[in-house]
Amino acid sequence: MMLAAFSGGKEKIEVKDAPVPAPGAGEVLLRVRACGICGSDLHFYRGELPALPTVSPGHEFAGEVAEVGEGVQGFAPGQRVLVEPIRSCRECAYCRTGSYQLCPKRVLLGTFVSGGLAEYVAVPAYTLYALPDGLDFELAALVEPLAVAVHGLHLVDLSFGERVVILGSGSIGVMVALAARALGASEVIATYRYDHQAEAALAAGVTRAVPADEASGLAAEKPDVVVEAVGGHADTLSQAIGMVRPGGRVSVLGLFTAPVQVHALPLMLNEVRVTGGITYCRPGQHSDFDVALRIIGADPERARGIISHRFPLKDADEAFRAAADKSTASVKVQVHP
Questions:
Q1: What confidence tier does 50 reach under pLDDT thresholds 50, 70, 90?
Q2: What are the backbone angles phi and psi of residue 36, rounded to the nearest 5°?
Q3: Inter-axis angle of helices 171-182 and 288-298, to 10 degrees?
Q4: Across residues 178-206, what is the average pLDDT?
Q5: With 90 as the cut, is the pLDDT of residue 109 above it?
Q6: CA distances (Å), 21 to each of 53, 61, 77, 122, in order?
Q7: In the CATH scheme, what is the homologous superfamily, with its name and number, of domain 2-142+306-336?
Q8: Comparing C-alpha atoms, which of 103, 149, 165 is closest to residue 279?
C-alpha cells in the first residue's frame, strides 16, 4: 500500500491509503520524489473543471524508477527520471510528426489517469527523461511548467532581440519570463497583481514589472510578442490583442474557464496572429522538454527561486490551500512524497 492524494470535492484534497500500481507492458513504476501544483490543478480544485475522485492529480513530477514492466528498455530500478506527462497513441499523424499534444487519444497524467501526487505511479516508459547529474528532483519537477512556457514561445516564433510582454505573473507567467530571457528576448515586461509576484518575476529575469491595473499603458510600447498567462474569465486576451504591435503575435497560455469577448477589428486591422498553446511537443530534433531541461541546467538556482512552498504528501490539502490563496505569497508550491 501507499499514500496518495485524491479530490474529496470542491476545495478538498484527501490523502488516503491506496494499492501500489503494477506496471504494465511498456510501463515503469515510478517512486515520486517531487510534484508541483499547477494553475490547472487549481481549476479542478475549485470545481471549475471536473475532478475524478479516483484519480490522483499532479502532472509536474519527477522521481526514480522502482520497477520496470515487460518490454521496457533503457531504464532500470534506481534511475532518476522526470516525466513528460502526455499519454498518446503514438500512431496517428500528430504523434508521428512530434505534435503528440494534439493526438485525439491524448491524456494528461493527473487528470483522467493518475498523476504524481502519490508515493508511486505507473507511467509509460516513453514519457521518461533521464535526469542529468546535478539536477535534483525539485528542479526536475519544474521542467514541465517551463516546457509549457517554451512551447508557447515556440508557437509564436520568438526571435532573438524581440520585446515581450507577459500578462500575469503567476507560476506560468514567471516561467515564461525565465524562458523568454533564455531564448534571447531583449526586453521582458510582466504585469502582476501581488507584490510577491512582481518579486518572483524580477528574480526570473524580467526587466520591468508593472501593476496589472496599469497594463493599458504598455500598449504605447507595441511589443513584438504578448503572452497571456492569466486565463480564468479575465479580459486579458482582448488586452493582449490591443497591446501588441501591428503584425505582432499573441501566445495564449492562460486556461480560460468561461467564454470571453474579443474585439475582432484590431485583430484584423493590425494582422495580429493569436495562437493557443497546450502543453508541449517535439517540433524538431529537440523537444520543448529538452529545451526546458537545458534552461534549468544552465541556471538552476534562478529556477529554484520560483519554488515558494514545499509540503510532504500527507499535507497535500494544506499545499493546495497555500497554492490557491495568494495571501500566502505562493508562486510554485511543490509536494515532496
A1: confident
A2: -90, 155
A3: 80
A4: 97
A5: yes
A6: 17, 17, 15, 6
A7: Medium-chain alcohol dehydrogenases, catalytic domain (3.90.180.10)
A8: 149
Q: Which three cell numbers stand for residue 153?
A: 514561445
Cell numbers linked to 223: 511589443
Query: Among residues 214, 223, 210, 205, which one has the least CA distance to residue 161?
Result: 223
Q: Smallest Cα–Cα separation from 85: which of 133, 41, 132?
A: 41
Q: What cell was used for 213? A: 491595473
pLDDT band at 199, cuts 50/70/90? very high
What is the full DSSP assignment across 158-174? --TT-EEEEE--SHHHH
User: Residue 48 above 90 pLDDT?
Assistant: no
For the chain, percent of residues with pLDDT exceeding 90: 95
- Asked if 253 contacts 152 with a C-beta cutoff of 8 angstroms, the reply is yes
Tell me which H or E stretch contains 121.
strand 120-124
Q: How far is CA 26 from the centre of its chain?
A: 25
Q: What is the mean pLDDT of residues 61-66?
A: 98
CA angle 155, 165, 39 (to 5 degrees): 70
Say what the pTM is.
Answer: 0.96
Each residue of 211-246: pLDDT tens digit?
A: 999 999 999 999 999 999 999 888 999 999 999 999
> 56, 110 in Cβ contact below 8 A?
yes
Mean pLDDT of 274-296: 96
* Helices (H) then strands (E): counts for the chain: 11, 17
- Nearest partner of 30 among 106, 110, 135, 124, judged by Cα: 124
CA angle 301, 128, 310 (to 5 degrees): 40
The DSSP string of 226-243 is EEE---BT-SHHHHHHHH
Domain ranges of the chain: 2-142+306-336, 149-276
**CATH topology (fold) of 149-276:** Rossmann fold (3.40.50)
- Please state, in angstroms and rounded to a whole number, the distance separating the CA atoms of residues 258 and 253: 15
Task: For the chain, give the percent of residues with pLDDT over 70.
Answer: 100
Cell of 31: 517512486
